[in-house]
């Protein structure tokens, strides 16, 4: 029995509220169970120096957690003057994932910065950030298209991410903190709307895992990703 009493292949409740911020070019508040992340997209009419005069755009991300997003207070990273290795790794993952779903030539020489701020954490914050970050990106690109700043849609497909793991000897979908903290194996799967893989992060936490178990987790990830893509499209009014 899972702590939440969910079925092995059952997602937590997913809610995506678009336009959650008044000033961002695109934004949403995504809730996956007890994990709540505020995602925003900011348009900048410039690219990093290494892309100057290439005709290519860029999508990057920043990630952070509020001090009381967790059970006990976490010190603000700004107070220590540097980001943790975990924060850097997660925001690079978000950026890589979202860039995989966009035609950078069609975007043109501009940058979109995705900010993902965790309001409340209960496992799977990086997955929620990627899934919500894509919605914010979609809304920002819609604004570019409406303004005539770009002539063709640079977004190639939806991008969503979901965690899977082996809990109590069973493959399970969408781990919350109670499961993630003791899972023998856990991983994150980033996928496109067509079910193609962008990135897989898998690790054994004390117990190794077999190839057939990995395949079972992949099956669960495909189910979960498809459900998240449906939630993204529903939040956007079915128009992507």
From TrEMBL:
Single Gene Ontology MF annotation: tRNA nucleotidyltransferase activity
The enzyme's E.C. designation: 2.7.7.56
Instruction: Extract the InterPro entries matched here.
Output: ExoRNase_PH_dom1 (IPR001247), ExoRNase_PH_dom2 (IPR015847), ExoRNase_PH_dom2_sf (IPR036345), PNPase/RNase_PH_dom_sf (IPR027408), Ribosomal_Su5_D2-typ_SF (IPR020568), RNase_PH (IPR050080), RNase_PH_bac-type (IPR002381), RNase_PH_CS (IPR018336)
Q: Name one Pfam family in it.
A: RNase_PH_C
Give the GO biological process terms. Answer: rRNA 3'-end processing; rRNA catabolic process; tRNA processing
The source's domain of life comes to Bacteria
Record-listed phosphate binding positions: 86, 124-126
How is the subunit organization of this protein annotated in UniProt?
Homohexameric ring arranged as a trimer of dimers.
Protein name per the record = Ribonuclease PH
Organism for this UniProt entry: Tabrizicola oligotrophica
């Amino acid at each position: 029995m899972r702590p939440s009493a969910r079925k092995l292949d059952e997602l937590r409740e997913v809610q995506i509220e678009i336009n959650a911020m008044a000033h961002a070019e695109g934004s949403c508040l995504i809730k996956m169970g007890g994990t709540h992340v505020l995602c925003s997209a900011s348009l900048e009419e410039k690219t990093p120096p290494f892309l100057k005069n290439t005709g290519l755009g860029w999508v990057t991300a920043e990630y952070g957690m509020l001090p009381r997003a967790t059970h006990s207070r976490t010190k603000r990273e700004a107070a220590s003057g540097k980001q943790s290795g975990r924060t850097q790794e997660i925001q690079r993952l978000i950026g890589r994932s979202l860039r995989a779903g966009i035609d950078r030539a069609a975007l043109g020489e501009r940058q979109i910065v995705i900010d993902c701020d965790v309001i409340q954490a209960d496992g799977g914050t990086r997955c929620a950030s990627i899934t919500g970050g894509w919605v914010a990106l979609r809304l920002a690109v819609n604004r570019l298209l409406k303004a005539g700043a770009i002539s063709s849609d640079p977004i190639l497909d939806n991008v969503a991410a979901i965690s899977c793991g082996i809990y109590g000897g069973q493959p399970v979908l969408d781990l919350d903190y109670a499961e993630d903290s003791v899972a023998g194996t856990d991983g994150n799967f980033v996928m496109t709307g067509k079910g193609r893989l962008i990135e897989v992060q898998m690790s054994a936490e004390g117990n190794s895992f077999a190839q057939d178990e990995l395949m079972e987790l992949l099956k669960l990830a495909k189910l979960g990703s498809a459900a998240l893509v449906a939630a993204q499209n529903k939040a956007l009014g079915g128009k992507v």
